[in-house]
Design brief:
Layout (H helix, E strand, L loop, with lengths): L6 H23 L6 H16 L3 E12 L2 E12 L2 E7 L6 E6 L4 E5 L4 E4 L2 H9 L5 H7 L11 E4 L5 E6 L2 E9 L8 E9 L2 E11 L1
Antiparallel strand pairs: 1-2, 1-11, 2-3, 3-4, 4-5, 5-6, 7-8, 8-9, 9-10, 10-11
Length: about 210
């Protein structure tokens, strides 16, 4: 014996079938998350673009905590190929500390006009202001690049941007990036570098490329 199919039941079945088909179609259209291969390719391309960035200016704020002591300052950083000029304005009440150097030597001038020159910027900065700022590494880390030499650990996001870097005993973390108009490339905005009881925080307010 056969039973007649109610029109309302047929309508509900058709509606359910349409919903299922639409759901399946939408699922097929979803973009899959980037694979590790995609992230690796993005990082390779990003490294090349950042390495080609030879001239730039940046400014912002730096905060340093060294054990139980700390200080903060504004900074102006100008980079021309391997040459750099870093103005620290207000660290430890000194008013201004000017750091100029290249790959061969570095010169530091304090507010009172006292000048010192040495081949190692990190040691000279420590002698001048009492804090060992990793100037040699920061020249690369500030762009979101590892410095030349071995890297203990490196982590990027799906866009190839550095999130965490371990190098030369330092742990460098990137929590924010800021877009730039040149090369369609975003650059670090907030960086924290830590080593033992020393912590350095950079907040970059502006990049000029």
């Amino acid at each position: 014996m056969s039973f007649p199919i109610c029109g309302c039941t047929t309508g509900r079945l058709a509606a359910m079938l349409i919903i299922v088909l639409v759901t399946l179609s939408a699922g097929c259209a979803l973009t899959p998350p980037p694979s590790s291969t995609t992230a690796s390719a993005a990082w390779t391309a990003r490294q090349q673009a950042l390495a080609a960035l030879k001239q730039w200016d940046s400014n912002g704020r730096i905060g340093v905590v060294n054990g139980q002591e700390g200080w903060h300052a504004n900074f102006l950083w100008a980079q021309q190929d391997t040459g750099y000029r870093i103005d620290l304005i207000g660290p430890l009440g000194q008013g201004r500390v000017l750091i100029e150097g290249d790959e061969q030597t570095v010169r530091i001038q304090t507010q009172d006009g006292h000048t010192q020159t040495a081949p190692d910027p990190d040691t000279l900065v420590e002698q001048t202001i009492g804090t060992r700022l990793p100037v040699s590494g920061l020249r690369y880390w500030v762009r979101g690049l590892p410095a030349p030499g071995p890297t203990t650990q490196l982590q990027t996001d799906d866009s190839g941007r550095l999130i965490r870097l371990e190098q030369n005993g330092w742990v460098i973390e990137y929590s924010a990036y800021i877009p730039t108009s040149v090369l369609n490339l975003d650059l670090p905005e907030r960086i924290v570098a830590r080593r033992q009881d020393l912590s350095i925080k950079l907040v970059i307010e502006q990049w000029k490329l």
